[in-house]
């Protein structure tokens, strides 16, 4: 891309802001050198990378961590240099970041293919991380465990140091020598331990003088008896330094052996970080991915003509990326199909230049892989090159006027353009005689159209308005001006030329009416009529635009209400399914209990040598009930339920009845909505309310007492007053409290004859679930247990099957 154009459009400022979102120096360098590409495939790929990064960051916090640009360190290591501890720690943290990112993208390769491809270029650790961890602490200190020799040296060093301090301590504590010292301390000079001797006692202690104070009153001396101890300590310190350097050199050589891979990995890491930075910048701008299209040809174009004739440019609510988002006015640039040039007119400071820069910058951003601050659905053509002439090009040094500066720059542009170029010209033909300037502007615009490139022009010349109106492929555009406030609105209107508004502004500012009328008389009436017609068209378009905005808001509100209703319907459907699942589970429980009761009844009748014919009817009823349970549960049966409740009210507990299907008398011990439990002798059976025949109630209480003494004192599983329920909820309880509650419940469930129960403990950390299942192992009441099914709560539920009573 043309470097002068990049500066004119302030593209370097975009890159500087992008670099601010990078996490380390290599990616910042990459961001500042990011130029728009002239390859369509590369531009599309760059945009896709940014989209993938935005998607990833929206659902997961991913970054390069504590990575550094370790390329200089790798180069030094490759030349047999020794890396200092901090450089090695930087290598370690960078490789750890690479390892974590590589793992992340290996799992998400199908979802983020472009980012995963970059991540494949990240380096392997090759044992470097383990080697650095083995020899260095997090603070960069070489560990004693780095080598046996270092450990031995440091052990001897501590012994030598303690021995030396002990001997020096005698000098600062002995009453014979302490009075000779300036202070009773031990200090260091030139790496050797010394004591501060007062100058007047020089020679009283045989010693080597290493230094003296500024005043000369204190001599820092090393007593002769400790010279050997100091020498030993110094030798050990040097040995420690040499061993540390050997260890660092060994690890550095490992880094140097993989220097090329490490440098290549840093480049890929920088590319990933740049993708993340582009995603963060896009979020900050509230940007969207543009649809980048190659310029297309129109019907009737000759086969040999390589020039594209149309550019699909559609920018919706586009904003200048460098302006305050809260203050900038978005513009729509959506010319009709076949447009190759847009001529923008309007008042000074009305936003013409900003509009030109907005379009140019957004094109450069898109071809750099950056999302643009515009509404989703925006489209733009792909350009091989972009050229701009914006601003005052006058130069005193080169004796160039404003006009000369512009023309010089335009001549340079005209030599380089082709049919894949975008040309942006501000104030074309300005700075000279208006008539000649307008003629030059029309000629330049005509030449650009012939070259096949796309052109955006800002001008004040009315001749260019006429040219745009009468030339195929060229459209007028204008920036509106509010006559009431005498301020520009900065709103771009495609299809209408701008008005001068000079007379209206002068009149509003208070110019005498006589002068206004005299000025109107000097103007061609057709021009005044055209201005009036343009004003009427603009007002009508504004009214239509307002109505469209109202309709859009209404549509958005309706869509929001529709989404809310859909959510409510989904919630209702979920509740319905949950209700049906519970009803089905209750039905399954009832059938299981009934099966168990029938088997018990069979056993008792067989033991009493009674015929089993009476049981067959009950078994048939039970099979019918089981079939109904397997069918979808119908919830809307309010009439039947009401009738059942009316029948239910005809019976009472303790009442003596005859079971018609068994032809046996018994006492009602439990009542349901449509059936009852009747105790016949020592056994209990279930029967429909319609099958019961009322008997006298005089002996009801006595029969009930006898029945309790007769043997079967276990409460029925379906007794509504004693039924413990088919599940127990332990969520929110501490483990001990939960296990106590579960124990009480299991006992009640066992006594109630339940075949199985559901224990709800939730998922959470899994501690409560494990405690529950440990308690169920070998439990007296529990035969087996298993994890709940998909519809029962999954890992948050344990289903326990109970032993038969």
């Amino acid at each position: 891309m043309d470097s002068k154009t990049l500066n004119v459009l302030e593209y370097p400022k975009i890159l500087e802001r992008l670099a601010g979102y990078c996490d380390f120096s290599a990616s910042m360098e990459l961001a500042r050198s990011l130029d728009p590409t002239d390859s369509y495939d590369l531009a599309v790929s760059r945009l896709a990378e940014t989209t993938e990064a935005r998607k990833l960051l929206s659902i997961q916090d991913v970054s390069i961590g504590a990575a550094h640009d370790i390329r200089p360190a790798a180069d030094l290591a490759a030349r047999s240099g020794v890396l200092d501890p901090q450089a090695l720690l930087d290598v370690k943290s960078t490789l750890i970041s690479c390892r974590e990112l590589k793992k992340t993208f290996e799992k998400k390769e199908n979802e983020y293919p472009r980012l995963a491809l970059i991540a494949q270029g990240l380096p392997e650790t090759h044992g470097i991380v383990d080697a650095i961890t083995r020899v260095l602490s997090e603070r960069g200190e070489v560990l004693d465990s780095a080598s046996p020799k270092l450990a031995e040296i440091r052990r001897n060093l501590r012994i030598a140091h303690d021995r030396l301090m002990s001997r020096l301590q005698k000098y600062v504590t002995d009453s014979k020598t302490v009075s000779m010292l300036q202070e009773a301390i031990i200090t260091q000079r030139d790496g050797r331990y010394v004591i501060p001797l007062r100058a007047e006692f020089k020679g009283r202690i045989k010693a080597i003088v290493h230094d003296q104070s500024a005043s000369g009153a204190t001599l820092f001396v090393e007593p002769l008896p400790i010279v050997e101890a100091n020498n030993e300590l110094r030798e050990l310190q040097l040995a420690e330094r040499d061993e540390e350097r050997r260890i660092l050199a060994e690890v550095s050589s490992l880094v140097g052996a993989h220097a090329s891979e490490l440098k290549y990995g840093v480049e890929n890491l920088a590319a990933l970080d740049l993708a993340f930075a582009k995603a963060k910048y896009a979020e900050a701008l509230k940007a969207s991915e543009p649809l980048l299209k190659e310029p297309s040809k129109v019907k009737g174009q000759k086969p040999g003509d390589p020039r594209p004739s149309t550019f699909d440019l559609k920018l919706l609510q586009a904003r200048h990326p460098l302006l305050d988002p809260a203050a900038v006015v978005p513009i729509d640039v959506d010319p009709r199909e076949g447009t190759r040039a847009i001529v923008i007119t309007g008042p000074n400071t009305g936003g013409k230049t900003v509009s030109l820069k907005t379009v140019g910058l957004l094109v450069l951003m898109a071809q750099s892989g950056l999302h643009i601050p515009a509404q989703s659905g925006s489209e733009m053509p792909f350009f091989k090159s972009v050229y701009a002439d914006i601003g005052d090009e006058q130069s005193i040094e080169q004796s160039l006027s404003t006009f000369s500066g512009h023309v010089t720059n335009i001549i340079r542009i005209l030599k380089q353009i082709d049919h894949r170029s975008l040309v942006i010209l501000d104030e074309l033909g300005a700075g000279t005689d208006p008539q000649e300037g307008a003629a030059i502007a029309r000629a330049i615009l005509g030449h650009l159209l012939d070259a096949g490139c796309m052109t955006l022009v800002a001008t004040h010349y009315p001749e260019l308005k006429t040219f745009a109106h009468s030339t195929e492929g060229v459209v007028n555009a204008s920036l509106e001006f509010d006559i009431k406030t005498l301020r520009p609105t900065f709103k771009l209107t495609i299809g209408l030329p701008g008005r001068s508004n000079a007379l209206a502004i002068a009149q509003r500012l208070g110019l005498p009416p006589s002068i206004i009328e005299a000025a109107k008389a000097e103007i061609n009436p057709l021009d005044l009529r055209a201005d009036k017609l343009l004003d009427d068209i603009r007002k009508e378009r504004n009214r239509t635009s307002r109505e469209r905005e109202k309709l859009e808001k209404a549509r958005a509100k309706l869509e929001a209400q529709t989404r809310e209703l859909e959510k409510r319907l989904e919630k209702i459907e979920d509740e319905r399914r949950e209700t049906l699942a519970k009803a089905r589970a209750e039905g399954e429980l009832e059938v299981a209990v009934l099966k168990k009761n029938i088997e018990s009844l069979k056993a008792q009748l067989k033991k009493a040598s009674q015929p089993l014919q009476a049981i067959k009817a009950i078994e048939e009823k039970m099979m019918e009930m089981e079939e109904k349970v397997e069918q979808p549960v119908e919830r809307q049966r309010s009439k039947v339920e009401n009738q059942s409740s009316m029948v239910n009210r005809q019976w009472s507990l303790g009442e003596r009845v005859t079971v018609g299907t068994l032809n046996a008398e018994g006492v009602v011990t439990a009542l349901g909505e449509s059936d009852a439990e009747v105790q016949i002798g020592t056994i209990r059976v279930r029967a429909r309310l319609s099958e019961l025949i009322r008997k006298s109630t005089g002996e009801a209480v006595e029969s009930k007492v006898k029945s309790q003494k007769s043997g079967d004192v276990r409460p029925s599983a379906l007794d509504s007053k004693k039924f413990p329920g088919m599940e127990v909820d332990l969520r929110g309880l501490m483990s001990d409290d939960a296990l106590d509650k579960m124990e009480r419940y299991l006992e009640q469930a066992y006594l109630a004859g339940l075949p199985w129960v559901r224990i709800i403990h939730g998922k959470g950390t899994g501690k409560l679930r494990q405690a529950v299942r440990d308690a169920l192992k070998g439990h007296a009441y529990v035969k087996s247990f298993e994890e709940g099914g998909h519809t029962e709560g999954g890992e948050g539920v344990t289903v326990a099957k109970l032993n038969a009573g």
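Confidence is low (pLDDT under 50) at residues 394-399, 633-649, 696-721. The two ends are 88 Å apart (CA to CA).
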